[in-house]
Amino acid sequence: MSRLVDPDETTTRVLRAALAQFELVGVRRTTMEDVSRRSNIARASLYRRFPTKNDLVEAVILSEVRRYFEGSERAHESSRNLEEHLISGIAYNVQFLREHTLLKKMLLTEPEVILPKLTIDAGAIIEIATQIAAIKIATWLPQEESQTSAQQRHLRTIAELNTRLTISFALTPQSSIDLNSDKAVREFAKRYLLPALTGGPPVGA
């Protein structure tokens, strides 16, 4: 695990080669020999690091998750208030997923593998993403000694809405909504999503 959290040069080369091969032919058609050849790493050395193809696939996924969070942190660095934080986050999430080469490849060539993980079996992903989003949003809200149950529900609802919308835009890029540039995504988020995110729970809820 430590090798994946802080990969050395060889492991990084393997992960990059595997990702490139997955993007080229898909996960199912990629073999360990393909990765060994593309990374210029001996098969024995490759298998010492990743005993099975499934181990390698999981490592690539972990690497991409890490890349996502690193990019997310950079996207929020210049945020000065809740509005900027939300708009930057929504814009980054939508563009990261819509421009992710491997995700687009799998949606086209291996939809039976990836679609269940992002739809009927997406409960765990949505729950984790919602928790993370709620924590990030909460840091920009006025700090009170305690939140009411209505405030807590509202925060989680907003975080889950953000998560589900992002996944929807990634899975179905064809849309009458202009999301083809960073500016367009930010304008959409500001005009349509921000009011819902900052409206607060209904009075008396």
From TrEMBL:
Q: Which residues does the UniProt record annotate as the domain HTH tetR-type?
A: 8-68
Q: State the organism of origin.
A: Mycolicibacterium fluoranthenivorans
Summarize which parts of the chain are annotated to bind DNA, as ranges.
31-50
Listed PANTHER family: HTH-TYPE TRANSCRIPTIONAL REGULATOR RUTR, HTH-TYPE TRANSCRIPTIONAL REPRESSOR RV3405C
Keywords attached to this Swiss-Prot or TrEMBL record, sorted alphabetically, are:
DNA-binding
Q: What is this protein called?
A: Transcriptional regulator, TetR family
Q: Which domain of life is it from?
A: Bacteria
**One MF term in GO for this entry?**
transcription cis-regulatory region binding
- Asked if DNA-binding is a keyword of the record, the answer is yes
